[in-house]
Amino acid sequence: MIHPSHQPAARQATRAVGVLLVLLLVVMGLPSLPGMKGVAHYLPLHMALETLAIVVAALTFGVVWSARHEQLPRNALVLGCAFLGVGLLDFSHMLSYSGMPDFITPSSPEKAIHFWLAARLLSALALLAVAWLPWSTSASRTYVVTLVALVVVLVAALHSLFFFAPHLVPETFVQGQGLTAFKIGFEYALMALYLAAAALLLWHMGRPRSFNASGLFAAACVMGLSEFFFTRYTGVTDIYNMTGHFYKVLAYAFLYRAVFVETVQQPYNLLRASQRQLQATLDALPDPLLEIDDEGRYVDVRAGHVGSLAAPINQLLGKNLQEVLPAESARITLAALDEARQQGFSRGSVVALQVPDGNRWFELSVARKAPQPGQDPTFVVISRDITQRLESDEAMRKLSLAVSQNPLPIVITDLRGSIEFVNDAFTRTSEYTADEVLGKNPRMLQSGKTPSATYRGMWTQLKQGKPWQGELTNRSKSGREFTESVLIYPVRNAEGVVTNYLAHKEDITERKLAAERIQQLSHHDQLTGLPNRVMLGKHFDYVISQTNALAVLWIDLDRFKDVNDSLGHNAGDLLLLEISQRLRTSLQDNATLSRHSGDDFVALLPHTSQDEAAKLCTRLLDVLAQPVQVAGQEIFLTASIGIAISPDDGQQLDALLKNAETAMYRVKEDGRNSYRFFTPEMQAHTSRALALGNALKQALPRGELHLVYQPQVSLLDGRVVGAEALLRWNHPQWGVVSPAEFIPLAEANGLIVPIGEWVLHTALRQLRAWLDGGLPMMTMAVNLSAVQFGQAGLTDMVSQLLRQTGVPPEALELELTEAVAMKTPEVAAQKMQELSQRGIRLSIDDFGTGYSSLSYLKRFNINQLKIDQSFVRDIGTDTDDQAIATAIVQMAHSLGMTTIAEGVETAEQLDFLRARGCDQVQGYHYSRPLLPEHFEAFVRANLQARKQKPTPSAQANIRAHAVETAT
After folding, report:
1. Which CATH code, of 3.30.70.270, 3.40.190.10, 3.40.710.10, 2.30.300.10, is assigned to 525-678?
2. Relative to the CA of 553, which of 290, 616, 617, 740 has its CA 20 to 30 Å away?
3. Using alpha carbons only, what angle is made at residue 532 by residues 530 and 536, rounded to the nearest 5 degrees?
4. How many Cα atoms within 13 Å fall on the side-chain side of residue 685?
5. pLDDT 10s digits, 672-681
6. Distance CA 271, CA 504 (A)
7. Sorted alphabetically, which keywords does the UniProt record give (predicted)?
8. Whole-prediction pTM value?
9. CATH superfamily placement of domain 285-391
10. SS3 letters for 781-800?
11. pLDDT greater than 80 at residue 46
């Protein structure tokens, strides 16, 4: 693709090459005629063509040599100097031609061909070098002289070779036979060089013009075409030889034109273009351009707008400055000319003139103009109208003063946030000077207390071209934190493009503190700092919008009036502060504690169920029951707590508060120091729980508790290997109370510790009695609650009971639930280690129902895992239960433990567990839990049956007997 800068010359070059190519084809297609073998009078024609070629080559060198001081490109000098050598070789070729007088040595076709080929090779290499080397590099004088000397030395060397040692050169022509193969091959090699140069020049024509590549391209192509003729002639005077010389002359002409255009014509064209551009520039200048001589007279005046001149142009030319300008303006202008005379230029002088456009101010720029020989120097003066600029500067000065003296901080940044301007108020607020912040980012003021989402929202607005308003908490240079109300908006230029951001700031720290104080006074209790009823309502509205599962506790201190009456209100206030702190510490973070009046507190508990509320109330009562030191006295307080649950007891705060308060009064009526639910159903449950809790305290002394024992059977041989002791409660009024109901009460009120010790002691005494009665050694399994396991002296207590009852430690198996073991794994592992070292067996009850960590399980000193009955119940049909049971058995065996499955009720369940390798089972399939005497009978029946190797029907009879005697 030809670059537009080459297209006019490229079209001419390609047309010329195309015409000459067609002519070559025509000549080659002519029939062989007698006249083609030898052209009449060929010698004079040859001399004329060669002379013309030599002249063109000399002109090429002459043009380049004459311009060698103009910083010509190195390529032009290479081409010109090379064609000096080409012209000299062509001259020797002409003198050596057959028919010419002897030139040093006898003339002959072969001698002429030697000089011909040398000239052609030099021209081809020169064109190739010009096309290859960078064109823009200028050459020094030393380079030019060296290049000419090299060309002269090369030409002289070639003359010496051809004159005195022609035998060293291969034959090129044989008289009567024509050209040799060397000659023809050499010509084709020259054609290849010319075509390579043409290809490189064609590549240059596709790039912006840096030299006349089109002319050189035409010269290279025509050179190559001419060489084709010299591969065809058989006689030195035939038509092919003549046509080849003609093509060579044309190629030289193209070459000369290319060099001439580049070294002579192109600079003149550029000069004329530069003059036209300068004239256009002068015509486009909006400011008057004056030329004034050394005496202050107007020599030339150019002005696109005459309204900015002090007088018409024809009245200025030849006049002196003092004749045209006011005295002060003339004096200032002459002073500027004098400064330019001494320094070469003058800038910044301002004069005031009355011109047709009105009173205007002009800024003078003066430059001294170098004079022509024999002439006085002159000065070029540009008079720029700066009236509007001065007016704008004045307006900007006023605006700058207004912005700088604004009592509120103002910051201007670029689009990247770099500060470009701050006013005095900003420096006072931030305590940074302007020099310390200019170029910096305002983030240097960040305190870290403004949420990152605020900054993200700010930049989202600003990048959309929208203003942003908000509050930022910043830090001054001294570390003082302050809150600012900030308005930032984009600043746009005349085209509507955002160029800057402008921020108006206001320190609102004191205002916010005052608002917070007012908020605190109006929404919080002054004594405790807790939210008052108004704030409680806001909290309730927020919580109820998130969830409707909400518990409201109304907490009233019992007999608080007695404290005020006896110790005074100051002591009462101190007591209320301590109580509020205890309550706040005991509640979760998402709970809201409020003081209503006097000794009444209300707690909002989001996401709280009835059971969770009951447990929390129990904990609060325990916390409040701790003594308080007030006025040097130890005071014991209790509280009554009423509970209302949303949405069952109401969905509005007033309704919930009313119901919770009603429940609280019910507690008061029932004796204080407790809690009650408002819902009738929940109230009934709470009443029963309270009654059971109170009755449980007397159950042990009154003998209402007893133990039953469920057999544990080995699947290996069917023998009874152990018993699990299970606690039962028969109340005179309520009858049998479920362990699931009374054991949590015992754990909640602390009774589980003495009851648990009684269970352990009773079970060990019973085992000792069975052993003394002749029963075989077996294991007694006793469950430990979390409260028992957490007792500091558990290991010593168990060891003491073993010694008292005389039961071997290995006959006792303590059962722990997963939750107990994993509550504090490190502490549990230490305690299990202590029990194991005493020889006591340990098992994990209900294994698989919790979230045990296997990494801890392998560290625990566990002897047995109990498969929970929830996995056994559907083990015959549920593939998941089957997989879990199988995995527990395999895992236990891999860790060196045994397994026992509870809740086995069917033969199908038993067969599956036996097939999977389970070690022991217990459940209704063998026996319900039995009273001691019935358990003893069951074991003896089992021993008797095993001795007789009973049939399955006999085993069924044993189980039936167990069912009959079961409790």
Report:
1. 3.30.70.270
2. 740
3. 100
4. 10
5. 889 989 866 6
6. 57
7. Membrane, Transmembrane, Transmembrane helix
8. 0.39
9. PAS domain (3.30.450.20)
10. EEECCHHHHCCCCHHHHHHH
11. no
